[in-house]
Amino acid sequence: QVQLVESGGGLVQTGGSLRLSCAASGRTFSIYRTGWFRQAPGKERQFVARITWNGGSTYYADSVKGRFTISRDNAKNTVYLQMNSLKPEDTAVYSCAADLNGGQYDSWGQGTQVTVSS
Q1: Around Cβ 71, how many Cβ atoms within 10 Å?
Q2: Within 13 A of 22's CA, how many CA atoms are on the CB side?
Q3: How far is it, in rounded angstroms, from Cα 92 to Cα 46?
Q4: Is 90:84 a contact under the CB 8 Å cutoff?
Q5: Which of 27, 48, 62, 75 could cross-link 36 (Cys pair, CB 3.0–4.6 Å)?
Q6: Does position 103 have pLDDT exceeding 90, yes or no?
Q7: Across 4-13, average pLDDT
């Protein structure tokens, strides 16, 4: 089992920046990749970005490409999401998830609220 805890959310103005953290504990050696997702009120959960723990391969949703950067610190078992040039449409609850087997995301954090004011 892997436990995930997100932090770093908050209220920011349009054009501002935030850095989210996703701290993993438990069987962290088994994590294949970690992803960030977001869900706005009344909308479906949306993929944002993901990174593999070995090699650090990254992939982004088109909506955040060039503005968001995902990174990881294996020594700290933490994945980060640096969010720049934030827009009101980025407002959502952001959650991280771990894929342990190279298939679906198995473990989820509880999420952190990001609100971008116009």
Answers
A1: 14
A2: 32
A3: 10
A4: no
A5: 48
A6: no
A7: 97
Amino acid at 7: S
Contacts of 115 (CB under 8 A, 6+ apart): 10, 11, 12, 91
pLDDT digits (tens, 9 = 90+) for 53-78: 888 899 999 999 999 999 999 999 99
Give the chain's mean pLDDT.
95
Cα end-to-end distance, the chain, whole Å: 40
* DSSP-assigned letter for residue 24: E
Give the pairing of strands 112-117 and 10-13: parallel
> Pick from 94, 109, 105: which is nearest to 31 by CA?
105
Q: How many angstroms separate the most distant Cα atoms in the chain?
A: 41
Q: How far apart are CA 27 and CA 45, in angstroms?
A: 26
